[in-house]
Design a protein that fits this description.
mainly beta, two-stranded antiparallel sheet
Length: 100
């Protein structure tokens, strides 16, 4: 019986297993390839579930799901599933803004 790669790692069965690079995940054991996170999301390396993919700054949505760009007048500075925040009074921002 050959050794196989764990979730979050990829390689040839019986060979060396490398961590899935950031921006990818692998939920299965074995030699299958790492899967790219959904658009506008990212993950740390060696992740093993689509929910490890979190929305990029300027985008909001559930972990592992569809990330939607913050609308005009809202922003989101960090990664994750937090909502876009409204700009302070008497100010505005373009769609997809990363900071107030």
């Amino acid at each position: 019986t050959a050794c196989i790669c764990n979730q979050g790692y990829s390689g040839v069965n019986g060979g060396a297993c490398a961590p899935c690079p950031s921006g990818t995940f692998k939920a299965t054991h074995g030699s299958s390839s790492c899967v790219v996170c959904p658009s506008h999301s990212d993950s740390l390396s060696a992740r093993n579930d689509i929910s490890d993919c979190t929305c990029n700054p300027g985008f909001s949505g559930p972990n592992g799901g569809t990330c939607t760009q913050c609308i005009t007048g809202k922003y989101k500075a960090g990664f994750g599933n937090t909502n876009c925040e409204s700009c302070p009074a008497n100010s505005d921002s373009p769609a997809g803004s990363l900071a107030d």
